[in-house]
Amino acid sequence: MRVQVNGDTLDVAAGTILALVEELSLDPRKVAVERNLEIVPRSLHATTPLVEGDRIELVVFVGGG
């Protein structure tokens, strides 16, 4: 399926937000997700389906000092 992630068009196998985050090798505990201009709460990542043409914005939190 083809989706847009942070402005880049990608072909992905993922069927849910969580599967996409994992497919991109990101830590699900450190990612905020917006799908089609709406924030997706972390508690819904595993059950929120991706559909062709979705526009996903991912923000990865990094720690440091």
Task: Give a quick rundown of the structure.
The protein has one helix at residues 17-23; strands at 2-5, 8-11, 31-35, 38-40, 55-60. It has 65 residues and is mostly beta strands. The N and C termini lie far apart (39 Å).
Shape: globular
How large a portion of the residues is in β-strands, by DSSP E?
Answer: 25-35%
Largest sheet, order of strands side by side?
Answer: 2-1-5-3-4
Please state the CA-atom Rg, rounded to the nearest Å.
Answer: 11 Å
| Helix-strand category | mainly beta
What's the total helix number? 1
Largest sheet: 5 strands, mixed
Number of strands: 5
Which runs of at least 5 residues are low in confidence (pLDDT < 50)?
Answer: none
Q: Which sequence of SSEs, written as H and E, runs from N to C?
A: EEHEEE
Terminal residue distance:
39 Å
Helix content: 10-25%
Average pLDDT value? 96
Task: Kindly list the characteristics that best describe this protein.
single chain, 65 residues, mainly beta, five-stranded mixed β-sheet, 1 helix, 11% helix
Task: Give a written overview of the molecule.
By secondary structure, this protein is mainly beta. It contains one helix and five strands. It has one helix at 17-23; strands at residues 2-5, 8-11, 31-35, 38-40, 55-60. It is globular. The termini are far apart. The mean pLDDT is 96.
Write the layout of secondary structure elements.
Blueprint: E1 2-5, E2 8-11, H1 17-23, E3 31-35, E4 38-40, E5 55-60
Parallel strand pairs: 1-5
Antiparallel strand pairs: 1-2, 3-4, 3-5
